[in-house]
Amino acid sequence: MSAQRFEQVVKEAFPHLSSGQKKVAQYLLDSLQEASFQTAAEIGRASGVSETTVIRLSYSLGFQSFSQMHDAIQQRVMGREKTVKKEENQNVLKRVLESELNIICRLENEENTQRIWEVVDRLIHADQVLVAGYRTSYGAAHWFSMMLSTLRERVRLVNQPGDIQESLCDLTPESVIVVLSFPRYAKEATKLAAYAKKVGVTVIAVTDRILSPVGELADITLLTETNVQSGCNSIAPVITLLDLVLTAYQEKNPAGVQKRQQKLESLYTHQDTYME
């Protein structure tokens, strides 16, 4: 009995019930949620029959008592709620993932591709590259600076706002600064880009709008979005965009990348940097 859905039990027994029991059975099927909190007397009043008829129905359905039938109703209701909750959770995750994928797919357009190759040209010919990102943009900036440093020399990350003056001190007109800035826009990123622009350093902005605070100052702007569907402004699309830049860099400068990575591998081995 417990393995069957309560509705199925009622359906199979329905033709053999008395007219009063059919009223109760129909009420239970229509109002299962409410019935799970009601006593036999309350169910009887709601369906227009006596409490005794409700108890007799439980026997006719194969239960040993009204309490056992009531337990079956409650278990069925709880099972429904769990199923609904599970579906809601799955829908939330699916919605976030679909939103993320849509943002990433929008990166594939002719204008974006052209800008990526322009950025790569600037990065290859720069005497040094400074990468900056604050608050929500810091994680992506750290990852990009680390990965770019495996492809070329003289890549530095601005670690905190107090590093701005020291970081800018050695820049030249041949230098490039990559500034990541996404909502909520940190003032430090705008100040850094403004000063770099003032002294003639190439400013590359990675941001969400062409007219964002750093976008207005940039020589080249790469655009994408953070995924707000997740509730925490996921930077996965930003990482994907930066990964495209790194891939294009390797494609454009294979000899330089190979030389750099061979040197790094020698150092990693000598200093026993990695587990394997």
Question: How is the secondary structure organized here?
Answer:
Elements: H1 6-13, H2 19-30, H3 32-35, H4 40-47, H5 51-60, H6 66-105, H7 110-125, E1 129-133, H8 138-148, E2 155-157, H9 164-169, E3 176-181, H10 187-198, E4 202-207, E5 220-223, H11 236-252, H12 254-270
Parallel strand pairs: 1-2, 1-3, 3-4, 4-5
Helix pairs in contact: 2-4, 2-5, 4-5, 6-11, 7-11, 8-11
Folded structure, characterized:
With 276 residues, the protein is α/β, with parallel strands linked by helices. It folds into 2 domains: 6-78, Winged helix-like DNA-binding domain superfamily/Winged helix DNA-binding domain (Arc Repressor Mutant, subunit A), CATH 1.10.10.10; 106-270, Rossmann fold, CATH 3.40.50. It has helices at 6-13, 19-30, 32-35, 40-47, 51-60, 66-105, 110-125, 138-148, 164-169, 187-198, 236-252, 254-270; strands spanning 129-133, 155-157, 176-181, 202-207, 220-223. A 5-stranded parallel sheet has the order 2-1-3-4-5. Helix 8 packs parallel to helix 11. The longest helix is centred in the N-terminal third of the chain and has 40 residues, at 66-105. The protein is elongated, with a radius of gyration of 33 Å. The model has no long low-confidence stretch (mean pLDDT 84). One of its GO terms (molecular function) is carbohydrate derivative binding. Residues 4-80 form the HTH rpiR-type domain. InterPro entries: Homeodomain-like_sf, HTH_RpiR, RpiR-like, RpiR-like_SIS, SIS_dom, SIS_dom_sf, WH-like_DNA-bd_sf.
